[in-house]
Amino acid sequence: MNSQHVQKFVTVDAKNKPCPLPLLMLKRALKEHPHQALKLITSDPNSELDVIRFCHLRNIECDLTQISEIEFHFNIQCNGKNT
């Protein structure tokens, strides 16, 4: 049996959704999965500022990886008390 720890996360696919839909989808996912890591995938460059600001104001850990000019991946970890 493999003893490696694999962190599971919930993927929120918000590609091709205009702002503010990616942020609204993130808020819903945080409420539905308060203690689970999330990966938010967006294609709207305006979502970058919205998501980062939202997470910062709530002390939610958020790491952004820009995959291309039109694809952004946010790795989000929340303890469930900040939403």
Automatic annotation (TrEMBL):
InterPro entries (alphabetical): TusA-like, TusA-like_sf
Kinase as UniProt keyword: no
GO MF term set: transferase activity
Keywords recorded for this protein, A-Z: Transferase
Pfam families: TusA
UPF0033 domain mapped to chain residues: 11-74
The protein's name in its UniProt record: TusA-related sulfurtransferase
